Amino acid sequence: YPTWKRTLARRARESQMKRFCKAQAIQRRLEEIEVTFRELEQQGIKLEKLLREENESPADQQTQWTNQLLYLVQKKNNLMSEESDLMIAVQELKLEEQQCQLDEKLRSYMNKDDALKTPEDEKAEQEILKQLVEVVNKRNVLIQLQEEKRLSEL
């Protein structure tokens, strides 16, 4: 087994592990965001009840509750934005994994001697190449989406 093939296999495993770790971290963060959403929702409900029921309370107190409610809404919007970014990252990881698998398949066809390739092999190679281009285009769209989102937030 040539050294370059072992190196490619090792690098493929390493990149797969990196993607797996990143996916786990994203999943944990999404779960944390979900818990935080529920907590913010409960705090918001309490503040709304206070604002509606305590009409006789001082104006300063009502202003303070309103400001707290607005702060919670802002915090929730920030979490929603982060959640959106994480969902894009999940899609990107899926496409990256798909691209690696297609690369590996394509490499196996391309390493085959042209004289030994059957018409089915050549057709499969072209199909894999077509799928690979589609995946790269999808990743490009995601990157553009992230860039547009980042620019709009600025």
Please explain how this structure is put together.
The protein is mainly alpha-helical and 154 residues long. It has one domain. It has three helices and no strands. Helix 1 (3-53) packs antiparallel against helix 2 and helix 2 (59-111) packs antiparallel against helix 3 (119-153). It comes from Brachypodius melanocephalos. Residues 13-154 form the BMERB domain. This is MICA1 monooxygenase. Residues 23-57 form a coiled coil.
Describe this protein with a few key phrases.
single chain; 154 residues; mainly alpha; 0% strand; elongated; monooxygenase activity; monooxygenase; coiled coil; MICA1 monooxygenase; oxidoreductase
What is the topological layout?
Blueprint: H1 3-53, H2 59-111, H3 119-153
Helix pairs in contact: 1-2, 2-3
Q: How would you briefly describe this protein structure?
A:
The protein has 154 residues and is mainly alpha-helical. 90% of the residues lie in helices and 0% in strands.
The count of β-strands is: 0
Number of domains: 1
Find the structural class using helix and strand composition: mainly alpha
Order of helices and strands: HHH
Helix content: over 70%
Distance between the termini: 52 Å
GO molecular function: monooxygenase activity
Subcellular location: Membrane
Pfam families: bMERB_dom
Main location: membrane
